[in-house]
Write a structure and sequence with these properties.
binds zinc ion; 5 strands; alpha+beta; binds guanosine-5'-monophosphate
Length: 123
């Protein structure tokens, strides 16, 4: 698992946040500014700046991270949902610690923004 960074908001949240789900190496929290009826962020405890550096997780950690995304969605009661990662500022990334958005909980797809809409809303 990559190392934590002292000066990073999501490293701090991974240590002491209000979790909706937690397992070894990973936490999930509610997004402070939800873009869908349910909007959860999955955050690995180890710090990498972006998804581009996902190779810093070993094969087992990467598999666990994906499983943890699916487990978190199930735990918050979602069967249908969108998973998205913004990679870089022009794609809407604002926090530079890898995180996975889980968006869902509406009655139909119109309540769950597309990746493009999410990126544009962040600008
Ligand atoms: P990004 O734009 O980098 O893909 O996603 C960052 C997300 O983190 C945004 O949806 C934003 O609302 C959320 N966020 C930023 N700061 C905090 C915080 O302090 N607590 C929580 N729970 N969410 C945050
Ligand atoms: Zn971090």
């Amino acid at each position: 698992m990559p190392k934590q960074r002292e000066d990073c908001l999501f490293c701090q949240i991974a240590r002491e946040g209000a979790y909706v789900h937690k397992a070894k190496g990973f936490v999930a929290i509610n997004d402070i500014n939800p873009q869908a009826p349910v909007h959860v962020l999955v955050i690995p405890e180890g710090h990498v700046d972006t998804f581009r550096a996902v190779g810093e997780f070993d094969a087992k950690e990467s598999k666990r991270m994906l499983e943890f995304v699916a487990e978190t969605a199930e735990k918050v009661g979602l069967t249908d949902y969108r998973v998205l990662v913004n990679v870089g500022p022009t794609a809407g990334q604002t926090v530079f610690h890898l995180h996975w958005h889980i968006l869902g909980g509406g009655n139909d797809a119109s309540e769950v923004p597309s990746a493009v809409a999410t990126a544009e809303a962040e600008r």
